[in-house]
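Case study B.
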Amino acid sequence: MADWLEVKPRAALCRLTILALPLFGLWLVLSAHVFVPVAVSVQSLWLTPAYRTYEPRIVKTEGEKHWKIETNLFRAGQAYPHGAYRPGLQLDRTSSINLEYIQPLTLSLLIFWLVHLSLSPLSWSEISRQGEPLLTGSLQLFGIFMLLVAAKIFVGLGELMTAGDGLMRSFYLDTILVPRQPPLWLLDLLKPIIDASVFFLILVLPVALCVTNWSKDATAMETKHSAWTTAV
Amino acid sequence: MRAYLISLFVALVIGFAVLKSPTIEPLVDGFCLSLAQVSGGIIGVFDGAVVRDGAVLYRGSYGYAIEVTKVCNALEQSLVLAMAICLLPLSWPQRLAAVAASFVFLQSLNVLRLISLVYGKVLLSPDHFDFLHLQIFVVVLAVAVVLFFIAFLYQNRHRLLVVEGTTHG
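Model:
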């Protein structure tokens, strides 16, 4: 952790001020039009076959700010024993669940670009010549973002099935319904892990990636400098 | 570095499990109420038209109200910063002082955010308010956490370098 700490704070702050608005704009555009739509499309690929009975769809309707999963619990009812399915049963309140806001999860990319470009010991021309650490870091963060969205979907669907089960029970008091659902303890265990992962992804990993890159940059600079000194 | 990151992740999982547990919920609600009280109190100094009803703040009518809920209290960001600082190889008085400073820094920023949101609700269209609330302030808080941590590392670089040299030496 040591060798990047000698960064010049005034220069770093100056770079940060210059970069903040353009990078924020770039992030807004990319997250809304690239990162989140790509994530939703990829997630749908595994979601639909894995939960075929529930016919899940990831949707965001006009005017809504968050993405949600809609499922068809009527169809799920058909899979239950004892003829539990009854057409016309209203389960509107539990037929969808918020995935909360997916877009803030991509904040890790903005933080990574900001910190990497502002506080790197290299000049911007050297950073742009290298390019590779920025791209690799962004891809790694995007990969973790996809995993987190998948985990959120899993927990969301699990909760939906559990809530749906509760409601079905209240409708069919005399019928024993045993729907397929993940165990509650697993959902309870996953929730703090997902919460921690979200903040780890947004706040910790970008800085950790930058520190790793800076250490490499600083070593490269030192090697270059000592080679130059020797040559002179 | 790897050991630090793994310890931080484990600490965060435990921290979030505690923070979101039903036992802690009344404390978190009380904290939200205090944030609303502080924000309302500060606004009250220069604007008597803002009313506080529990954790709800509004100006004019209830249609322009904002409520300080669990997701508005910046406790999660404070927790991440506190854990990241506590796991650094520094003395405990230094760590505790830094955790206290980080908490005051983040919560001051959060109170400013809440005050801005009260006026944002009145002055901005719903779309612009959502943009301020869900995009700008989320980014501002995240960047503030990261910059505070980096500034803290920079301020303590000599101590950290000594500790690192000792550990590896």
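Confidence is low (pLDDT under 50) at residues 75-94, 169-179 of chain A. The remaining cases will be described in the next quarterly update.
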